[in-house]
Request: fold
Amino acid sequence: MVTGEERIRSVDIAAPQLDERESSRVSEIVESGRLAAGKTVSSFESAFADFCGTEHAVATSNGTTALHTALHALGIGEGDRVVTTPFSFVASANAIRFCGAEPVFADVDPETYNLDPHAVESVIRELDGDVDAILAVHLYGLPADMDRLGEIADRFDLALIEDAAQAHGARHNGRPVGSIGDVGTFSFYPTKNMTTGEGGAVVTDRDDVAERAARFINHGRDEAYRHTELGHNFRMTNVAAAIGLVQLEKLPQFNRVRRANAAELTDLVADTPVIPPVEPVERRHVYHQYTIRTQRRERLQEELSAAGIDTGVYYPTPIPKQPAYADVEASTPVANRASEEVLSLPIHPETTEADRRTIARTINGVSHE
Reply:
C-alpha cells in the first residue's frame, strides 16, 4: 500500500506530446488563411501513405469517419454482414451499421484480446458463409493475427479491413498495419500514439478504394461541382494536417519510448499475480495501452489513484452488451470475462522510471494484502 509520503506527481493515462514545432506549423497555416483542406492535407496524406507502406492515404475528420469511409469504399452496404470484435470501442461496430450493414461478433483470443481466428471461422460457417467482410481491430497497439485472418478472408472471398486506430507503427511479420488487408484505418485523437487534434486516415493499395474514399469524404465529388454519388463532409483540415506532419516525424521515437517503458514495467511486475500484455514473436506492439489482467481491479485502481497514477478500463462493457446493440445476439464469453479484469496503466513517453516503480510497488502491495 502506498502512503502519503510516497505519493508522486499525478500521472495521466495518456498525454499528447506537443511542443513549439506543432505550434509553429499551425501558426503558418493560420497566417496563410488557408485553414480548410488543401496542400497541407495532401502533404500529410503522402507522408502517411509512405509511413504505412501503401499507395494511398485519404485523410478524414476522425477515426470513425475513416472506418465509415473505408467500408463504403469497399462497397459494404445494406444487407451485408461484417464479422468483427465485441471487445473494442463502439465505433468499430457503429461504422458497420452506418453503412446499413450488420455487425456479427466473434469472440477474442484470451491472451491478445484481438479477434480469435477460430471464432471468426466458426461464426462464418454458422452463417453458411453468408458474410461479406472481416473487420479486425489491432487492440491496444498489438496487431491481430493477420496471417490467419487473411487466410480466412481469402478462403471465403471476404474483404479484410484493419482498424488500426490504436496501432500507428505496429507491424505484423515486418509489414506495417494498415497495409495488410484491403484497407486500413487510423485515428489521430489526442490520446493516440500520434495526434492531429482530431482526425483519421484511410490507407490502401487499391486505386478503386482510394478514389471512392476521396469522393465520399468530399460530398461525392469527383471534380468541381460534379457529384457522382452521395457523400459526406469528412475532410481533414489544414490545421490538423499541419500538426500531423510534425507528429508523424516524432512517431518512431514515441513508439521506441513506449516499447522501452512497457518492457521495463513488464520486468517490474514479473513476480506479481497480474498478467502483463503479450507480444507474439511475429508482431510488434506499440503499446497505445499497456493493459494488464487482474482479479483485483477495483482495489488496484484505488491504490494506484492514491499514488497519483491514473488508470483506464478499455473496455468495461463489450459492444454486444451495450444498450444500442440490445437487438444483437452474440456468444462472446472470453470478451465478457476480459471486460471484468483488464486494466490499462500509463507508459506513454512522459512517464518516468519513478512512475513505473510506483506502479509496480503498488501492484506488489495489493497482491500481498
